[in-house]
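Weekly structure sync, notes
Attendees: PL (lead), two postdocs, one rotation student
Agenda item 3: pending single-chain targets
PL asked that the sequence for the first pending target be pasted directly into the notes so everyone works from the same version. It is reproduced below exactly as submitted, 279 residues in total.
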Amino acid sequence: MHMNTPPRSTIRLTRRGRLALIATGAVVAGTAVAVPLLTLDGDEERKPATLVIPEGWRAGQVYDAVDQALALPAGTTKKSLAKAHLKLPGDAEGNPEGYLFPATYPLRENATPEQLLSYMVDTANKKFNGAPVAAGAQRNAMNVYQAVTIASLVQAEAATKADMGKVARVVFNRLERGMPLQMDSTLNYALNRSTLKTTAADTRIDSPYNSYQRMGLPPTPIDNPGEDAMRAAINPAPGDWLYFVTVKPGDTRFTADYAEHQRNVAEFNLNQRSSPEAG
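Predicted structure, written out during the meeting:
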């Protein structure tokens, strides 16, 4: 009697698509052999258990990710905003940009876009409305929504965590001097793209997010910042910088001297031209 393999009829697929080995009456040398139940985690239909929202994603990217995670038609999450009743500050005028807090969110059975968006906004409110942020915003003569807006600029513009406090200081120094922010990240937001190359034509677009032409902060945050960017926005590094440019990866130069900045920009442009990635 060969007992090396169970008869084929004892190998079957369960309803949930998990492979179960069921062997009955397998006896070798008078001992019952228990065949373990094999469960394979490669369930095709199973939805992921969590949704990861990275720091710096724009609201549009979050909506797309929620649609995909919940296997909903594209555009469903964005349409659900109207009935989500999100607890946003008045200044936001119903736009959750900046308040879809980057984190890993559990995907419960039968989760809805409204529930997920509410969870993200509630998480942001917990992080942003605490005493440290409120006090930090007040210390810098702004409200929390403006602090989140500055944090979103920091998140988009700082190449490293170490540079965040300096980028925040450039924002404050420019605002205090009545200089336009002139940040490419705001143009990229207006044009719904992500690029290192900004043309002269880009700087002339008619948009409230054109920080080359409009004074002050953009009307809303331009992405969803994380805690490090928020900390930088309320505790900017001390310095007189007005300009910065990432000349090459790992080399961001901050200066208060325009001529020095022009030299740095020229070096950036040279690196762009000679870089194979600069497509």
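Discussion points:
- Residues 50-128 form one domain.
- Residues 4-44 have pLDDT under 50 and may be disordered.
Action: rotation student to compare against the earlier draft before next sync.
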